[in-house]
Each structure stands twice: as C-alpha cells, then as structure tokens.
C-alpha cells in the first residue's frame, strides 16, 4: 500500500471518529437550550425578580457599590452597582468576561433568535440582566467600573453569595488609569444588545446604543490595559494576555453593525491590521469573532476583496480536523482541545463561530479552501459543530453529559459555591467564610442542581474526575454557556 493510500485511510478514519458522534444520535436540543439559558439565573447577583425560576438562589450583594477603591476613583459618593452576574463558581463580578458573555448572547439572538422559540424571552431577560448592570457601571462620566469584589479574599472562602461577609470593593478605570479592553468589551455588549432590543424595547435600545458610543470613545481615547492599571486585582484571574487592540476593533465592528456609520467602518479598516490571532475566540481574544462578524456586515471594506472573509476562512482551517493548517488538538473521542483550563470555553466558542460562518458560506454558495485539496463545505462546518455539541451532551467515551441536569448522567460535584452549599431554604442560618469548607471537601453530590451549567470538561484523554477540587475541569462559567446557547438554538431548528 502506497503512502498516499495510507494517508487517505488515516484521514478517513480520523474523520469517522470525529464526526461519527453525530450519526444515529438524537439529542433533545430544545431541552438543552432551555437549560443552557436557565443556568444564567443561577449566576445572577443582586435583587432577584419574581420571575426567577432557579428559586434555590436568593438575593445577594445588595450593597455593591457602597465600598469603592478610592486610589483610582477619586469621587467620594457611592455608586449603585447591584446586579450583573458572577462569572463562575466564585462570588466576584468580573466585568470583562461578563461583557463578553453578554455580547455573545446577543449575537446568538441576532443570528439564531428565530430558532429559540419560547426561550427567546428568557434569553432576552438574560441579556437585559447584564445590560442593566452595565448601564450602572458606566453611569459616572470619566469612569468605568470593571470589577466588584476582591478575588484573593473571595477565593479564600467557600460561602454562598447570599452570605458574603468579605469586603465588596468596587474597582474603576479612568483616563489616568485606563482599561481599554474591558471598556471596549462593555461597549460591544451594549451595542450588540441594542440591536437585539431594537424590535422589542426601542427606547431601551436607543439608550444602550448611545451609552455604547460614549464608552467606546472613552476606551479609544484613553488607551491602556486594565491589567497594568489594576495589577493583582485582576491578574492572574482575568488578566488581559492578548492586548486591548482586538477589543477596540470588536467594539467598533458592533457599533458599525448597529449604526452603519462611516466612522466605525473607517475605524475597523484602519485598525484591523492589529487583529492577528485569526484562530482564537474567547473572553480575552476576539480576533476570529471579529472576522466572522465582519463578513456579514455590508460595505465594511471599500475593495472588492474582503480580508475579513479570507480570515474567517483561516479560522475554519485552524480548527478543522483534516486541515493541514490546524492549530488545535482533538481527543480520541473527538473533542476540540486547547492547552489550559476550562477547555469547553474553546469548544463552544468555536462551534458557534462555525455555525455563523457556515450560514454565510451557504448564502455565498462557496466552500473554504484549506489547501492540499481540502475543501470544507457549509455542511462540513455544521457537522463539526454538531459533533462538539453532541460530545458535550453525552456522546463521548464516558457517556457523560457535561451539562448539569441534561441526560441520565452528568457531573454532581461541580466547583461552584452556591450549588455545593445548602440553600437558604434548607439552611437559613449564615454559613461563614471557612464554615463552608466541609461542604467543599465532602464527597456528597452538590446540594443544589445548577441546571444547564456546562463544566470545564475532560482532559485530552477524554477523562473526567467529578471533583470540586479539580476546578480547571469541574467549574462552569458564563462564557462557556453563552456561545452554546446560540449553537443549541441552531440545532433546535436544523437537525442536520
């Protein structure tokens, strides 16, 4: 047997392993969609509404904004910073990943909202819970509040958000202590949400868009990283490793989509050269998302050749299993894998982008050329995305759903304070900082089911230890779920 024949057999075998997860398997994508959105109610901070469905969670952090770090924020008044989301299994409000999650939730509605059915309203509520908060954090001229809570002290405790007795210091960036990445990401979230609410709540949409423009101007005029301004307050938790240039272009792209103004078109065209990590998309790196988004924004580039479309194709080739320029790994069970913790964030983000780009390619009636005679059709992109979603939902070597509450077998000991500790309903007395340690160390399942939460996922060998201590694999995050909402909405309507 010749080398070429052996290579063909290897490639075909790998493809069958990677895409076979979707063959003959039927998942209830509508049920998974409903649960993926419900998860955000479990992450809510502040005064919970009467419509709250995850009712083991109660009001928390009702004094946020009353304690302010005055080393960067000179004013003496208090600011109402109640609301927003806890990003993961802790009780800090990190506005950088929160804003990214909000932007992607809004994008999911823009692309696939018609496929959400009755869950569209719940998704709009999830977006609005964040944007109401972002209007608060940007309400003081010349400042943007970027975080509430002290990470080191918070992570030293294992307590319910309803019980928090640690300092809730609020941190802001300003012209003298800039934070372009987090400010621009908040601007992107507000702009994307303004598009979503334009039909449903036009006055609110107008307010969001106006604030988005103001915050973007602030982020662009006073350039600098919040990692430098705030140091160990945000690092290494959500330190900006990729620089702020991508967030500025990302925000401008969303403002262009929302306003169609030439100013933002010119800004994108003049600054897209700073966007170089074509194969990555997540809370820290927006590059691939920028190009996929801009392929669908008309008249963004004056030339007949669109570098955005070419770069979006390069993203596809960076994640396609059979591509000669692939930059990610795949487990034997077929899961996309990048080094580092919380791998499912990469899986869901890539799957969402593949589906958005596949829809555009289908309209253009074209395929992606990855070289070496490898062409990816829109169908192939959807096939790859579905294999990843199905893996999450349980079609994997462990037959384990990585979404809590979906399927017969799912993680029971997730790294999540509120879920692991008894609710106020069952334990009305306060559980202080260190008193929760016994629950953390227990081998019992979590007390409360955080339905819809998707954990960090298995390792490269498809192994998963259901352990709270193994936070890199057992902790859920908003930025894992946000792109998954869009992907599940797509498959809720398009089964193939």
Automatic annotation (TrEMBL):
UniProt-annotated catalytic positions: 415, 466, 475
Domain Glycoside hydrolase family: 29-488
Enzyme class: hydrolase
Alphabetical list of Pfam families matching this protein: Glyco_hydro_9
Gene3D superfamilies with a match to the protein in the record: 1.50.10.10
GO molecular function ontology, one term from the record: cellulase activity
Reaction equation(s) it catalyzes: Endohydrolysis of (1->4)-beta-D-glucosidic linkages in cellulose, lichenin and cereal beta-D-glucans
EC number, as in UniProt: 3.2.1.4
Domain of life: Eukaryota
Alphabetized UniProt keyword annotations: Carbohydrate metabolism, Cellulose degradation, Glycosidase, Hydrolase, Polysaccharide degradation
PROSITE patterns (alphabetical): GH9_2 (PS00592), GH9_3 (PS00698)
GO BP, one annotated term: cellulose catabolic process
Family recorded in the similarity comment: Belongs to the glycosyl hydrolase 9 (cellulase E) family.
Name of this protein: Endoglucanase
Lineage: Eukaryota, Viridiplantae, Streptophyta, Embryophyta, Tracheophyta
């Amino acid at each position: 047997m010749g080398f070429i024949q052996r290579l063909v057999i290897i490639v075909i075998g790998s493809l069958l392993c990677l895409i076979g997860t979707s063959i003959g398997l039927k998942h209830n994508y509508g049920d998974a969609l409903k649960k993926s959105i419900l998860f955000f109610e479990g992450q809510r901070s502040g005064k919970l509404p009467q419509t709250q469905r995850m009712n083991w969670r109660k009001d928390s952090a009702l004094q946020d904004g009353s304690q302010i770090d005055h080393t960067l924020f000179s004013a003496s008044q208090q600011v109402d910073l109640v609301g927003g989301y806890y990003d993961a299994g802790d009780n800090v409000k990190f506005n950088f990943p929160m804003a990214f999650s909000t932007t992607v939730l809004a994008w999911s509605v823009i692309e696939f909202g018609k496929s959400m059915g009755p869950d569209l309203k719940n998704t709009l509520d999830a977006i609005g819970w964040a944007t109401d908060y972002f209007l608060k954090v940007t309400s003081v001229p010349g400042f943007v509040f970027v975080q509430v809570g002290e990470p080191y002290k918070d992570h030293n405790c294992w307590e319910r958000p309803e019980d928090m007795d640690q300092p809730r210091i609020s941190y802001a960036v300003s012209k003298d202590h800039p934070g372009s990445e987090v400010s621009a990401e908040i601007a992107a979230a507000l702009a994307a949400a303004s598009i979503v609410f334009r039909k449903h709540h036009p006055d609110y949409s107008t307010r969001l868009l106006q604030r988005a423009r103001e915050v973007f101007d602030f982020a662009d005029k006073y350039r600098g990283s919040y990692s430098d301004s705030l140091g160990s307050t945000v690092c290494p938790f959500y330190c900006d490793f990729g620089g702020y240039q991508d967030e500025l272009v990302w925000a401008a792209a969303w403002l262009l989509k929302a306003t169609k103004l030439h100013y933002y078109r010119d800004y994108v065209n003049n600054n897209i050269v700073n966007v170089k990590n074509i194969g990555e998309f997540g809370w820290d790196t927006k590059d691939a998302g920028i190009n996929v988004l801009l392929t669908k924004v008309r008249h963004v580039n004056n030339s007949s050749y669109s570098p955005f479309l070419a770069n979006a194709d390069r993203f596809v080739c960076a994640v396609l299993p059979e591509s000669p320029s692939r930059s990610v790994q795949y487990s034997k069970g077929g899961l996309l894998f990048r080094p580092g913790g919380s791998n499912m964030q990469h899986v869901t983000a890539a799957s969402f982008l593949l589906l958005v780009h596949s829809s555009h390619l289908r309209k253009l009636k074209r395929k992606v050329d990855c070289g070496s005679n490898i062409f990816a059709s829109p169908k192939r992109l959807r096939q790859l995305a579905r294999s990843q979603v199905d893996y999450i939902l349980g079609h994997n070597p462990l037959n384990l759903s990585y979404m809590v509450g979906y399927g017969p077998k799912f993680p029971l000991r997730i790294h999540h304070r509120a879920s692991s500790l008894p609710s106020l309903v069952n334990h009305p007395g306060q559980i202080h900082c260190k008193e929760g340690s016994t629950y953390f160390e227990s081998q019992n399942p979590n007390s409360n089911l955080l339905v819809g939460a998707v954990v960090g996922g298995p390792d490269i060998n498809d192994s998963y230890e259901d352990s709270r201590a193994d936070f890199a694999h057992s902790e859920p995050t908003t930025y894992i779920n946000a792109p998954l909402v869009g992907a599940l909405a797509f498959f809720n309507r398009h089964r193939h």
